[in-house]
Design goal:
Blueprint lengths: L3 E7 L9 H6 L1 E2 L5 E2 L2 H8 L4 E9 L5 E11 L8 E8 L20 E2 L18 E2 L9 E2 L8 E2 L9 H4 L1 E10 L1
Length: about 180
């Protein structure tokens, strides 16, 4: 699929345990673990000309699933790169807007890193990796930059929602021109 790579997570490393400044400018390379940079993501999405495609390789089924958001943008740094998404389609389940359930939805949620943000992140341990985390105590259905076993998309349609069933081997977020 053609598009602009935003994120790619392969494996279970702590690669995404990065500071606010690192997430702002981006890091990694597109053939491995990668983050585009929040400022570039904001600049690309502020005009509304892209949709977001999320591809997910399930650890449980070894199958690829996908989610697409027909409307996607992030605010600038002044808003802590607040995420706005809508118009879900796909077979992965809606891990970002979660059918507008406010405690789980990432809509209107600010980006968080270990040095700026959320109860969902610590500088050490399993709960690491900058991302948009929901307001609920479980931190939401999308945790694409966390270290395993929390590297997950909890909306995957694969039976019961135990950690093993929603854990991922890979994830990829791509901007696709509308």
């Amino acid at each position: 699929m053609n598009g602009i790579l935003v994120q790619q997570h392969v494996g279970a490393s702590a690669f995404f345990n990065r500071s606010w400044e690192e997430f702002k400018v981006g890091f990694g390379n597109e053939s491995d673990n990668y983050w585009i940079g929040n400022e570039r993501l904001h600049q690309l999405t502020k005009g509304g000309q892209y949709k977001l495609r999320v591809d997910l390789l399930s650890r449980f089924t070894a199958r690829w699933y996908w989610a697409e958001y027909g409307s996607f943008s992030t605010g600038g740094e002044i808003t802590d790169y607040t995420l706005i998404a809508s118009q879900y389609s796909g077979n992965a389940g809606d891990g970002i807007t979660v059918d507008r359930i406010s405690d789980y939805s990432l809509n209107g949620v600010r980006f968080s890193t270990y040095d700026r943000g959320s109860h969902c992140i610590s500088a050490t341990g399993d709960h690491i990796g900058g991302f948009w985390y929901a307001r609920d105590s479980d931190c939401g259905h999308a945790a694409l930059n966390r270290q395993s076993p929390y590297f997950a998309w909890k909306s995957l349609p694969v039976g019961t929602k135990h950690r093993d069933h929603v854990a991922l081997l890979k994830s990829r977020m791509t901007l696709v021109r509308k």
